[in-house]
Amino acid sequence: MVADVVIGVNRDISAWPGRHLLEGGEERRYFGLKTAEQRVIEFECRGQREYEMWTQGVARLLAIVGEKARPAVS
């Protein structure tokens, strides 16, 4: 069994309780990585730009891996 293999990005993670109280808390964004074991590992970003960089980057890497995993069509 392979542990913690990332299979997707969850962009619909709610703000962590109380984080809005921190300086810049209203700017923070959250996302999760879905694993093959049906877990979601949550991450916090300092703002929208960082959030987009991470979510788009991980989604792109997953797409690349998905393309390489498909058998070649002749």
TrEMBL record:
This is Pleckstrin-like plant domain-containing protein. GO terms for biological process: auxin-activated signaling pathway; leaf vascular tissue pattern formation; phloem or xylem histogenesis. InterPro entries: PH_pln (IPR013666), VAB (IPR040269). PANTHER family: AUXIN CANALIZATION PROTEIN (DUF828) (PTHR31351:SF4), EXPRESSED PROTEIN (PTHR31351). Residues 4-64 form the Pleckstrin-like plant domain. It comes from the Eukaryota.
